[in-house]
């Protein structure tokens, strides 16, 4: 089994990292230098000529002549097997490639090139390690190159993947509790902000935990410091900046040369077009998943039916809906979208505080409670109904899915119980919805109101109930059922608020963090990630090694990784029936605003992220997100109302360079106008950025890959080989993405990874 | 009755105009100088402060203090009556005004100021004259100032307005033929490209026409030459450029100061919000009024039902739909939006020719014939069905209307008969559709194929049938009925194709124009306008003066104007029952591309226009369009695919300056993605340009005013006083436009008109 090399601790590195952090990496200037490969964005060269040649009947002679430049052999992706009988739909039509002839040092000195490659290699291994530990996804192509660099061979069997539950079969009750696993009898406790699982209470008291490998705290901080140093390192910045410029120009050339050919593939592809490709709204908050008009109609309708129903507790007195509205001096009949006032306008730009207030209809938190909360006097009935109406629209539209976020705050350990009761009671299930849990980073508020004594308690409230239910599912059937439909955790709040704290070995432990000040983003992220990692270990498989042997950290980690692999692909067949619950991915909001370190923390810990705007500010991180193909759910309409004007959104640039972006709505209630918010999001991006159909279908495909849809659904929507990267993994009949595009992306990624391999060889 | 001063002919002017034309006014440079009133577009000053003060409870004291700058008395619009008991909804809340204290010469010398005002005054009288002659709309406020300048008093009774038919009453058949007027027995003939009406054939042979005043040819050319000279005149260019910059800055200041107050008005306005304001899609082509997905579905559905129906004549052989698709080597079952290939993409940018080809589904003109034509083997049944489906969506959405264009080419005199048969046979009627006739400017193609002998014949084919049917409605009941639902004429085709011909007194008459070359845009426009003017005279009222007295042109024109007024408002009660048919407005595509003279011709002849992008290039014309409030139907998504990138569209700028803009889709089939193209158009504009709700509702109100909706419908949708300008004419309960905004617009327009009055006084 391949070893994951654990980079050594380096005190100098740490010191340097701290210096860098102190000098605020977030505002670094990226100069826009002119590179050799620049092509003007609207360059009309060849456009017309190519159109003429390629659009007319396939004149093979003519096309041959146009292919003179096709001299580059694509670097061999070692694992790309030679398919002998390629099915027609997998064939990549001939297309024109961009070949770079000569040396590849890309305008930096050989020394700088080597040191950059070394740093990038190490960064890749760091992410790979943490992804495996937590059952999260790591790019297969990147893994293949890492194994080659290490002189090993990549094996598909070694891969670790998140596991989500398949949709219920016909006749199966999605909320059925008949097949809940047995109690394992373990005990879960929190220590230093991390959950530990023990054989029994006695072992717990002695702190003799079972072997569910945690990420090691000091190694994590070393890794983080290494990455902080790397992203500030001059040569690496230059190198990655130039590579990214090259990627951009290369895509522009590719597009000029092959646009027509890509389109031809799509035209030849029967039945499938952009409208009936599956697309997932990868980032949407449940409390704002309806549009403003929908909410308005619902409020009016509820009043017509329920005016005399007791719906609220107003300062200790139970009041009917009529009384509630009277106390607010308004009548639902008069309400309009304007007076409802939930839409973000010019006033919210750069004002996240004002934006948050928009969640209150008519500015009244009472109405938010009544209509947009799961916990209230009517047990969240209205909120459930609204969500089910949204879901029914999606089911009707058939090809659209959404991943709404519900909140767990960590104020109280029974939040999970209440949330899952709401879910089960109102049967808020839809095949077109995959659920996510969002944890707002607002410890400071809770601490200020004395809801929690310290940060550790907040973490315990978030994680302990899930661990307990995982150990004994039948102890809390509703939560067990709900967790079956939850696919991940999100971390949310205003990133532009700076905490001033730097996460380091000297940071207080969560139980010691009892000041009112909020911990830093990175601190939150680490503890969320670490607990999710252990939780996933517990959910997939337990009790193989109930040893109490004390292992060194190094060995533990390696074991963890090996176990991960083993269980995921082999043990799943052996032990699945024993526990084999679904895992959770970590998908925080990241890089919407704030320091660049947020994106660095997510690089280490997150399966994928939402927003990612600030990748613009760090070429090193942007290049790393490209190399590891970390999915980014972008919401340009949300950004347009909050942080960044539409035309300046980096979506197009990221997409062109080959970062894996998807489109999402964030908050239809606040941002969208039409009945189909996700289509509105795609339409506006298509119009403003002039995306081609192939671009749009590629983005839609990315959204399915990024989502918490199950393996079975992904096979159904993308094709049986969707886990393979490159054209092999693309079933154009289902995705409507041109094979030429897939080949271009794959070859481009391999080329960049290959450069790193070459850079390390030199050494 | 007030006289309309007819400007004298001036040979020097003409010579100058010809020189200017020769030197191609279209590319003149408008320098972007810094003016005293510049305010950066994203200036945050006061935003937050004002929000704080104004949004909080109305603290009257505080607000008083903020109103120190309110010192400017709005220039008195003489006709604005003092309303004693203003209904609440008409009250304009207090708001902060921008006062300019001191002299008003606006940075130009006094001489230049006077000469500019003189020129602008004359330009306004020219437009007023031609609007009245053709029963088209002229700004009431502008008329009031013109009368003041002339020392007269404006009377509402003097106004001329277009007349459209009210929607059918309950139970009334919109296509009923029972009440068609009697035959007048007249004879209509074309001479020199103009229609004349005679008492009988004998009078026609002697060319003794009835007194339906035409625009005089040489006066028209003189007027045009004057305007050409005016828009090229240095001082006027400077003056108007500075006024426009001032208007822009003034609006920005207004917005900063009053945004919150405007929003407050809207929030206080019950029942009404942007969603249930009436909005009209003021520019849409019937052949592309469905979106691509709709067309695709329709094709598939038609095949499932009608595969064995004979639907087409293929090279003389009648074929079934199955055979037709077989001959094209495709099966509808396999069709996708991609293979349908009707959507404009990056390939169509700056390529109108390629865009036109997109009207052919799958690139096959046979399918265009079958699905998108009124004349084909199945009598346009499918096309009618598709349009009725679009109409039914609009009826369901309730608040949306559209004005689709159907083509009359002028190849053949029986085109009108066929079109109206199609209309009546398939009952293509909907209360949410108002019909327009578009005439493509493609004489050159018809002449090249020998379809017509000369341009005069094309004009005759377009107008003669309408004149004949107007004289004897019962001779062609179908056409008479169809004309009841037609509200105007459009002139369409690629404006960027330059003809090279200059319209002048030396231009050949239409009957002499027998070369293959296309006449210029202006030549087309003049003959369209002149015939529509006469047609409207005929349709409103006839036979009062069947005199054969030969009047001088001057007198004729004055008589025409007086008659117009008289008939429209008095005679309508007397003679209405006698004829009193609806009139047609002239609403050409104009300023999408091509020379600036297009916009000049439309200024003289058009009730309103579509596109108007090139107003960017001439400050004088832009200012004139502002002063006369000529409605402009803009389609930024269409422009984005064809001529101008979205972010560069002047829509926002025009709207801010106070030009009267509406939003329209142009071709949903080619440009839009969602099921609600007009909402998509509004949503994208709102997002990209950050329009406020008040902005959007103002644009929606403009669209109703611009449209061919009847007086009755406009009263219903905008309020009973909609014809009044300023806040008096606005019923916020129906339009959701803030009275503060209306007052700002009105005061601003009056201020600018007043400047001209002052400039003329000095003299």
From TrEMBL, chains A, B:
Q: Which GO terms describe its molecular function?
A: AMP deaminase activity; metal ion binding
Cofactor (UniProt): Zn(2+)
Q: Which reaction does it catalyse?
A: AMP + H2O + H(+) = IMP + NH4(+)
Q: Which InterPro entries match?
A: A/AMP_deam_AS, AMPD, Metal_Hydrolase
Which superkingdom does the taxonomy of this entry point to?
Eukaryota
Which key words are in the record?
Hydrolase, Metal-binding, Nucleotide metabolism, Zinc
Q: Which Gene3D superfamilies match?
A: Metal-dependent hydrolases
Q: Does the keyword Hydrolase apply?
A: yes
EC category name: hydrolase
Provide one Gene Ontology biological process annotation.
AMP metabolic process
GO cellular component entries:
cytosol
Q: In which pathway does it act?
A: Purine metabolism; IMP biosynthesis via salvage pathway; IMP from AMP: step 1/1
> Record keywords: Zinc included?
yes
- Tell me its EC number(s), please: 3.5.4.6
**Which family, according to the similarity comment?**
Belongs to the metallo-dependent hydrolases superfamily. Adenosine and AMP deaminases family.
PANTHER family, per database record? AMP DEAMINASE (PTHR11359), AMP DEAMINASE 1 (PTHR11359:SF1)
The identity of this protein, by name, is AMP deaminase
């Amino acid at each position: 089994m391949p070893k994951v090399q654990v980079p050594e601790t380096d005190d100098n590195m740490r010191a340097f990292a701290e210096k860098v952090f102190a000098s605020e990496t977030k505002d670094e200037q990226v100069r826009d230098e002119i590179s050799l490969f620049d092509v003007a964005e609207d360059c009309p060269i060849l456009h017309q000529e190519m159109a003429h040649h390629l659009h007319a009947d396939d004149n093979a002679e003519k096309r041959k002549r146009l292919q003179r430049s096709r001299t580059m052999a694509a670097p061999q992706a070692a694992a790309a097997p030679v398919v002998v009988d390629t099915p027609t739909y997998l064939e990549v039509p001939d297309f024109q490639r961009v070949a770079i002839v000569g040396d590849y040092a890309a305008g930096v000195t050989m020394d700088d090139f080597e040191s950059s490659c070394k740093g990038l290699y190490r960064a890749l291994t760091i992410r790979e390690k943490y992804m495996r530990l937590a059952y999260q996804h790591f790019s297969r192509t990147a893994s293949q190159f890492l194994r080659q660099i290490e002189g090993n061979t990549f094996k598909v069997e070694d891969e670790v993947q998140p596991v989500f539950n398949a949709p219920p079969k016909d006749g199966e009750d999605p909320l059925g509790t008949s097949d809940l696993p047995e109690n394992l009898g373990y005990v879960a406790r929190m220590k230093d902000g991390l959950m530990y699982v023990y054989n029994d209470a006695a072992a717990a008291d002695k702190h003799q935990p079972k072997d569910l490998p945690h990420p090691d705290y000091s190694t994590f901080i070393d890794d983080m410091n290494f990455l902080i140093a790397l992203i500030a390192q001059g040569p690496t910045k230059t190198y990655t900046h130039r590579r990214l410029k090259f990627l951009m120009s290369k895509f522009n050339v590719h597009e000029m040369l092959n646009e027509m050919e890509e389109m031809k593939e799509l035209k030849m592809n029967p039945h499938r077009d952009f409208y009936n490709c599956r697309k997932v709204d990868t980032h949407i908050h449940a409390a704002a998943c309806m549009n403003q008009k929908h909410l308005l109609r619902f409020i009016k309708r509820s009043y017509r039916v329920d005016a005399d129903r007791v719906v609220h507790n107003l300062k200790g007195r139970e009041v009917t809906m009529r009384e509630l509205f009277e106390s607010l001096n308004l009548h639902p009949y008069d309400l309009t979208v304007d007076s409802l006032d939930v839409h973000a306008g010019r006033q919210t730009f750069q004002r996240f505080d004002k934006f948050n207030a928009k969640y209150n209809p008519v500015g009244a938190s009472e109405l938010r409670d009544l209509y947009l909360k799961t916990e209230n006097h009517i047990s969240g009935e209205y909120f459930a109904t609204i969500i089910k109406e949204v879901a029914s629209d999606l089911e009707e539209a058939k090809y659209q899915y959404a991943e709404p976020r519900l909140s767990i705050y960590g104020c109280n350990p029974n939040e999970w119980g209440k949330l899952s009761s709401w879910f089960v009671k109102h049967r808020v299930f839809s095949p077109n919805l995959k659920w996510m849990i969002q944890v707002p980073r607002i410890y400071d508020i809770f601490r200020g109101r004395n809801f929690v004594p310290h940060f550790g308690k907040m973490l315990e409230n978030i994680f302990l109930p899930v661990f307990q239910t995982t150990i004994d599912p039948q102890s809390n059937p509703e939560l067990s059922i709900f967790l079956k439909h939850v696919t991940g955790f999100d971390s949310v709040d205003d990133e532009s608020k700076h905490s001033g704290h730097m996460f380091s070995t000297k940071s207080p432990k969560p139980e010691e963090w009892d000041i009112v000040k909020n911990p830093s983003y990175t601190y939150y992220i680490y503890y969320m990630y670490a607990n999710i990692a252990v939780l996933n270990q517990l959910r997939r498989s337990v009790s193989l090694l109930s040893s109490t042997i004390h292992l060194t950290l190094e060995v533990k980690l390696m074991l963890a990784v090996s176990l991960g692999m083993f269980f995921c692909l082999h043990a799943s067949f052996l032990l699945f029936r024993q526990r084999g619950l679904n895992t959770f991915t970590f998908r925080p909001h990241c890089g919407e605003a704030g320091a660049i370190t947020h994106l660095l923390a997510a690089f280490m810990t997150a399966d994928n992220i939402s927003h990612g705007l600030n990748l613009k500010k760090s070429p090193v991180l942007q290049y790393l997100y490209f190399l590891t193909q970390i999915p980014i759910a972008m919401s340009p309409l949300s950004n347009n109302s909050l942080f960044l004007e539409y035309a300046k959104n980096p979506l197009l640039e990221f997409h062109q360079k080959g970062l894996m972006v998807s489109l999402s709505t964030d908050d239809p209630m606040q941002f969208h106008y039409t009945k189909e918010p996700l289509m509105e999001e795609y339409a506006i991006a298509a119009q403003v950025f002039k995306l081609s159909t192939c671009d749009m279908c590629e983005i839609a495909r990315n959204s399915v890959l990024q989502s918490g849809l199950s393996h079975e659904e992904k096979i159904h929507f993308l094709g049986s080989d969707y886990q393979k990267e490159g054209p092999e993994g693309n079933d154009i009949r289902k995705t409507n993405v041109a094979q030429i595009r897939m080949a271009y992306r794959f070859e481009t990624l391999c080329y960049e990874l290959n450069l790193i391999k070459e850079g390390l060889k030199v050494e």
